[in-house]
Design brief:
This protein is an alpha/beta fold and 329 residues long. It is 50% helix and 11% strand. It contains 12 helices and 9 strands. Strands 3-2-1-4-5-6-7-8-9 form a 9-stranded mixed sheet, sandwiched between helices. Bound molecules: ligand NPW, adenosine-5'-triphosphate (ATP) and magnesium ion. The site of ligand NPW has 17 residues, from helix 2, helix 6, helix 7 and helix 9.
């Protein structure tokens, strides 16, 4: 099931080299097809028998004075990918701003209150997954409250996606997430380096991203790690899968928020579907591969329309069509 990460011996003779690569490409294509099918398997059917909330209630923990866009992007992306309800738990002054972007979001201005942990804890029984970090900032009080929220969420066995400043917190205190099997970390280049320095003593081998993401996942006790980049590499400490869905060369801010928000939802779907639907592959690997493909496809579609002026808002508007193209049967 591992994608495109087998060691390929490269003989000097041109002909053999060409053949090796075409075999390699054939494996890649087959693995891609497998993963598309596995994601399709975890997507819940749209039926008239369900009630509001059943297809996903996702909480985003983030949003402060400086950053209001990131939690909005994450929460909207979860909704547009098919969640029924999206909640944002943010600092007081961010709340009216986030609410003003959209009437779709339920916004709780609790993150900087003295009883923030209690306030969020009240909602945890209703949440299927939590996305921690988009637009959180690095204020000590907020980070302290987020620590409490992480502990309470782990105690309830809730799937947790950790992104952006949530990863900053984990780099300060890796024990917070060490060994938690329902965690997914989504570092960009910089965030990956910080985590690596915090948990692995030797220098990162930049020539072997595959080995690095595997090692980081193992060092964190097999939490799932998504290393974002030109290709996204995803590891659960046992295998590495690669997502190379075609995107574009446009790198506007906020694309990672689209990924983490949609991943919160897909993590819930995948865990609910279970190993039977994922043919024994880790459900969180399948969810991560699905969310990476979706993000890149949105980027691709938006770029076709808007080119250099593509923004994350344009990408979010593509989620419906991108999702149908990739995953609807
Ligand atoms: N609209 C909003 O509200 C948005 C808010 N956001 C929120 O901002 C907060 C901080 O998040 P962050 O990602 O800016 O933080 P951080 O880890 O300090 O990285 C910054 C530095 O890392 C580097 N760098 C990054 N990628 C790299 C690469 N591939 N390869 C090489 N270098 C790379 C790059 O360094 P530079 O090139 O500038 O020297 C960059 O300056 C967080 O809460 C987040 O959610 C965003 O979500 C966007 C939309
Ligand atoms: N060089 C690249 N080529 C193609 N896709 C990329 C490239 N770099 C990142 N991506 C894609 O963009 C998405 C977001 O990754 P990125 O590294 O921009 O995250 P980020 O820095 O956390 O974003 P944000 O601005 O939301 O914080 C991922 O799905 C990733 O696959
Ligand atoms: Mg980010």
């Amino acid at each position: 099931m591992t994608m495109g990460l087998r060691c390929v011996a490269i003989p000097v003779c041109g002909r053999i080299l060409q053949r090796t690569f075409s075999l390699h490409t054939a494996h890649l294509r087959k693995d891609m097809e497998n993963f598309f099918q596995l994601v399709k398997n975890i997507v819940p059917a749209l039926t008239e028998k369900k009630h509001k909330g059943q297809d996903g209630r996702i909480g985003i923990v983030g949003g402060c004075q400086e950053y209001t866009g990131a939690p909005y992007f994450a929460a909207m992306s979860a909704l547009k990918a098919g969640a029924d309800l999206s909640y944002v738990f943010c600092a007081r002054e961010a709340a009216p701003v986030i609410k003003s972007y959209s009437p779709e979001l339920i916004v709780h201005p609790v993150l900087d209150s003295p009883n923030a942990v209690q306030e969020v804890k009240k909602w945890l029984p209703r949440l299927h997954a939590l996305v921690v970090g988009p637009g959180l900032g690095r204020d000590d009080l907020l980070l302290k409250n987020v620590k409490g929220i992480l502990e309470a969420s782990k105690a309830r066995d809730i799937p947790i996606v950790i992104d952006a400043d949530g990863l900053w917190l984990i780099a300060q205190e890796p024990a917070l997430i060490q060994g938690y099997q329902k965690a997914i970390l989504t570092p960009n280049h910089m965030e990956f380096s910080r985590l690596w320095e915090a948990v692995v003593s030797s220098p990162v081998d930049s020539s072997d991203d595959h080995a690095s993401v595997l090692r980081l996942s193992q060092a964190l006790g097999n939490v799932t790690v998504v290393q974002k980049g030109e290709h996204d590499l995803i590891s659960d400490g046992q295998q590495v899968v690669r997502c190379s869905q075609e995107g574009s060369s446009r790198r506007c801010g906020g694309q990672g928020d689209l990924l983490s928000g949609s991943l919160g939802l897909m993590a819930h779907w995948a865990l609910l579907a279970g190993l039977e639907k994922t043919n024994g592959t880790s459900p969180l690997l399948v969810a991560a591969w699905g969310a990476c493909s979706l993000t890149r496809q949105c980027n691709h579609q938006a770029f076709q329309k808007y080119g250099r002026s593509t923004t994350t808002t344009d990408m979010i508007a593509e989620i419906g069509a991108a999702f149908s193209k990739l995953f609807e049967t």
